[in-house]
Design a protein that fits this description.
- This protein has three domains: 54 residues, no CATH class; 135 residues, Rossmann fold, CATH 3.40.50.2300; 132 residues, Response regulator (Rossmann fold, 3-Layer(aba) Sandwich), CATH 3.40.50.
- It has 13 helices and 13 strands.
- Strand 6, helix 9 and strand 7 form a beta-alpha-beta unit.
- Helix 3 runs antiparallel to helix 4, helix 6 runs parallel beside helix 7 and helix 8 packs across helix 9.
- The radius of gyration is 25 Å and the shape is elongated.
């Protein structure tokens, strides 16, 4: 077949030959949307200069470098969040987004801080999921002093500088969880609480909202002292086994942090899975199966595609606003899953 020509591109794009020529040779005189139309037409007809037009398109957009530090790579939640962030970055047409995602498998303040500083060497913005700790706060302030702005993802952070946030309203999550137990547990009784780590502000606020609901509305319930899983399945399993053994009258289990796979395994092995109302977090292969077999009654989940899109959009707005434009805090709606809507 003969090679496609500029005339073929112009015909496919519905533009004049002179406009296509300007895209190729004087792109600074052409609107970005016109370059995009020509690029799509060139791709469709197989024009040999496609890569050249791609370069013109990339060169016409502001460039924004984003580094993201997530927690354990082994957790499907963080892998799924990473994928959604990459897809959201690729979908942006107004800016050229270069995104780099790293993980911290050993969650210590020193590791998180080192990861943030490493990403900050090649980024305009940094997104991070991390626990609250003075060492991490100091690192965020250090990045801010270098002109690098930070968005906390999923769990809020504090520092003596402007920080953005994109995640759930944890207070509402906790209150909603309380409402669920109040309406699902018949009769009322003891409810156990598993958290990952209270240094995650989202989990601390979540538990506060949960207890607040029962102080205000629910009578006849006894909320046990929260136990920490340290975001680990094996510890969550051990704690759930202990709770089932120590409290034969347990009516509810609230898993508000990491380790839910371990809690699910322990509930199944206990033979009491259908007797204990269980509310957990985020949809995964493990929690989906647990919903279907009745081990979990309700899941509250982050809308990961929306979280990713909002995070990228917030960084773009801050970038376009200039150095005096503060990062925004965005509270997202959360998804609620039952066995009937997954």
């Amino acid at each position: 077949m003969p090679k496609a020509t500029i005339r073929d591109v112009a015909r496919q794009a519905g533009l004049s030959l002179s406009t296509v020529n300007r895209v190729l040779h004087e792109p600074q005189k052409v609107r970005e949307e016109t370059i995009r139309i020509v690029y799509q037409a060139a791709d469709k007809v197989g024009f040999y200069g496609l890569e050249s037009i791609r370069g013109r398109l990339a060169g016409s957009r502001p460039k924004l470098r984003i580094g993201v530090l997530l927690l354990q790579r082994s957790q499907s939640f963080y892998r799924n969040l990473a994928q959604c962030l990459e897809e959201a970055a690729m979908a942006v047409s107004s800016h050229e987004i270069m995104i780099r995602i790293e993980y911290t498998d050993e969650i210590t303040p020193q590791n998180v801080s080192e990861g943030l500083l490493r990403l900050g060497e090649h980024a305009d913005f940094v997104g991070v999921v991390a626990p609250e700790h003075p060492t991490i706060s100091a690192t965020l302030e250090q990045l801010a002093a270098r002109g690098i702005r930070t968005f906390a993802l999923v769990s809020q952070l504090t520092a003596r500088c402007n920080l953005g946030f994109v995640g759930l309203d944890s207070w509402k999550v906790g209150r909603t969880s309380g409402w669920l137990f109040d309406n699902l547990c018949k009769p009322p009784g003891k409810i156990a609480i598993l958290v990952g780590n209270h240094r995650y502000r989202c989990q601390e606020t979540n538990e506060s909202g949960f207890r607040s609901y029962f102080r205000e509305h629910a009578r006849g319930f006894e909320l046990l002292e929260a136990r920490s899983t340290f975001e680990t399945d094996s510890i969550a399993r051990e704690l759930t086994e202990q709770l089932c053994e120590e409290h034969p009258d347990l009516v509810g289990l609230y898993v508000s942090g990491g380790g839910i796979a371990g809690a699910v395994s322990a509930l199944r092995d206990s033979g009491r899975a259908t007797d204990i109302v269980t509310v957990g977090y985020d949809l995964s292969e493990v929690t989906r199966a647990a919903l279907l077999d009745g081990t979990i009654n309700v899941l509250l989940a982050h809308p990961l595609p929306l979280l990713a899109r909002e995070a990228i959009a917030a960084m773009i707005r801050t970038f376009d606003g200039g150095g005096d434009f503060p990062p925004q805090s965005i509270a997202l709606p959360f998804d609620i899953y039952t066995p009937e809507n997954i």
